[in-house]
User: Which sequence fits this backbone?
């Protein structure tokens, strides 16, 4: 094998690694935030890909003879990287969903704020809980754990070996189901307390028709709802810890479905 062949093979390996890392950074929480300039994200993906290319090169097969096959291999690795990023982002979406559900119960559902991380509108509590989750995620080195899991994925699933099949889609559907269940479990305590408050004021309205329950009930629901959310803040930290641990499991599940 000549020096030219080695160089072409190294460049082919770099393309595959860069596609997977670039897909991850595009979709991952925090790393893929629009607040980070595109040139910074691209530069970080380039540096990380250059560092991982020598480790992955011995496991990569020969360069495809067709440009179409090469483009398909790069595309599959890129989609696999995007799937890894979204597997971590889905769990943060559960935290946002829980905040929005509680906001609706308190009467804050009509108040929308712009999330500075995603540049999308969200309710007051959903934005607050998302920022809290991101802060705890950073303190727990979740971003480093995510990058470490991606680096390990090149060992278990070398570049160019991605071949998604039916199990890959079933894994994604399972992660979506887990996200919805996690969001409802996180919102259930506060939503349950607010439901009891609504029932109590309904009984008061029936017993004392002269009392304007709406004027009295709205401030009470806000105070009780915010107090319940404040008491549940340590639970959010525990959930974020589960996110850090669950991301690695999700990546292994995706790798099993992409072999």
Assistant:
């Amino acid at each position: 094998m000549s020096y030219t062949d080695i160089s072409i093979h190294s460049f082919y390996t770099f393309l595959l690694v860069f596609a997977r890392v670039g897909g991850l950074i595009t979709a991952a929480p925090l790393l893929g935030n629009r607040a980070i300039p595109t040139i910074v994200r691209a530069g970080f993906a380039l540096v990380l890909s250059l560092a991982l290319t020598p480790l992955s090169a011995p496991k990569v097969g020969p360069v495809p003879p067709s440009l179409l096959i090469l483009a398909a291999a790069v595309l599959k690795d890129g989609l696999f990287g995007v799937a890894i990023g979204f597997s971590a982002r889905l769990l943060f979406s559960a935290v946002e969903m829980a905040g929005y559900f509680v906001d609706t119960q308190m009467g804050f559902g009509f108040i929308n704020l712009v999330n500075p991380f995603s540049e999308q509108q969200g309710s007051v509590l959903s934005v607050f809980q998302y920022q809290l989750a991101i802060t705890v995620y950073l303190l727990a080195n979740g971003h480093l754990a995510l990058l470490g899991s991606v680096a390990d994925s090149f060992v278990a699933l070398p570049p160019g070996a991605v071949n998604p099949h039916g199990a890959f889609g079933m894994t994604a559907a399972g992660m979506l189901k887990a996200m919805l269940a996690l969001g409802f479990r996180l919102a259930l305590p506060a939503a349950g307390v607010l439901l009891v408050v609504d029932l109590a004021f309904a009984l008061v309205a029936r017993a004392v028709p002269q009392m304007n329950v709406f004027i009295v009930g709205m401030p009470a629901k806000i105070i009780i709802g915010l107090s319940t959310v404040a008491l549940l803040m340590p639970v959010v930290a525990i959930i974020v810890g589960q996110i850090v641990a669950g991301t690695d499991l999700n990546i292994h599940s995706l790798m099993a479905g992409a072999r």
